[in-house]
Amino acid sequence: MSATSRAATDLIRARPRGFFGDVLTVAGRAVRSLPREPEAIIPALIVPVFFFFVNTGSLTNLAESAGGVSDFKAFQLPVAIIFAVTGISRANALVTDIKDGYFDRLLITPIKRPALLLGLMVADFVLVLTLGAVVTIMGILVGIRFATGPVGIIAFLIIGALWGLAFTGFPYAIALKTGNPAAVQSSFLLFFPFAFLTSAFVPVEALSGWMQTAARFNPVTYLLEGLRAIILEGWIWSSIGKALLAIGLLGVVSFGLAFITLKGRVSQDA
Amino acid sequence: MTGAKEAGAIVARGLQRRFGDNVAVAGVDLTVTDGEIYGFLGPNGAGKSTCIRMLTTLLRPSGGDAWVAGRHVVEEAGNVRLEIGVALQEAALDPQQTGRELLTLQGRLYGLTAREIESRIGQIVGFIDLGDAFDDRLNTYSGGMKRRLDLAAALVHNPTVLFLDEPTTGLDPISRNKVWEEIRYLNQGLGMTVFLTTQYLEEADELADRVGIINKGHLVAEGAPAELKRQIGTDVIVARVANPAQAAAAVRSVQLVDVVEEADGEIRIGTTDGAALISPVAVALAEQGIDVTNLALRTPTLDDVFVSFTGERIVV
What we know:
heterodimer; B: alpha/beta; Rossmann fold; Alpha-Beta Plaits; 4-stranded antiparallel sheet
């Protein structure tokens, strides 16, 4: 190396990049990885589409005649969105990083620690928004119309994606706590009570006793009411507000867990 | 945690780490001066990696202090991170990225501008010799390629102190030589201080200005390889025998014998004059009726040093 290039090299020294720069760097890597792991995305689309057609195919007549639902397809689209986005996260990739030692490589850099998680969540938001859009387009293709028009479609997508984002804290907490791929895989079990102990198939009022009680405590119930309002009724702010509040509460719990476990993982005591 | 700062690229004072009841590192003192290659030698489980994880801010010491580039590893961890480059055991890479993407990301995390990253990649890419594979995903790389890229990732930001945890474990001899050349260039050409752990005596001998031998969490010896070898005598006579204990007893009283060590199936005799001693040793063994399958004279290796300080051989 010549004297001049050595001098130029000397000027290039490490410096802290700043919080937003770090988040963008981590997010950039995660987003770039998304299309490279189609095996992680395709099932996330098959499940909601499958359930949408099975549910509408089997239950439409029943629900519309006896359940008091005017348009069962529109009634089911929010369920499909929730099936598509709930539990989607980069937690598997995070566990792989921990196992491979790449996470340590990141920890040795001056990166701001919360950026390690927030960057992944930015990528998650991009992904759940995309999945939600695909499912919504499918809904529109089968004839669902939004009472709130094009702005409603966007609001519908964003609320669905926010729900997906709020849920990511759980798998991340499990990933960071255990560093174990099997534990992260089993975090999908959380999806079942949230997705099924609710008004997924019939309105809350039509649910039987204990199930109705469970549904009243399930944030998904309020999320579904808000999303259904946007499709079927219009800008019913009380329902939409409750949906956002449910997302916010879930987010506080799940992000709280995730960032507490992150703190444990990145402390020098780990 | 307190303690006065001391001069040196790496300074450890009473550095300790416990995991529950298990003491992984039991009070290590060492000083690595600027521009030195320091080899940290020890068998698996000796505490090498635990030491490196404490010095690179990944692990908090249970006791003692350490400074790297003049910064305390716990109290000034952020500043330490700006100064060091680290390649951990088993290349820590993301298989989904390409070599170029990985180095670019690494550069960003160290706050380099796009132009600086490009310039650094330009300087490093020839050096790590990946050719066209640099733009391929890492899941297509061989072990040697991964290790070289891992080393490059540790260098993007021009660190002043480079930590390498077993940089050549698992590599074939050709790849190993290549990594050795690179380490020498970084040290001699760029003046980087290098702290490397290894379980290969040959590697420490080849590269290190000074060697620290760690065993069961204790630093048992430290010095230049030649100095350490001198300490155990200038020459070594090795006799392969069926009963080392009996053979050792037979030669211990022979004149010129400085030290006798028993090892698995052989004895090693340290002496200042091997040429003069070899026939008296042969006679002494023959007189006791000991069956000798091989008798050889050689200069000591770090292996001998290791045995002399730990009573065990490094088993790789």
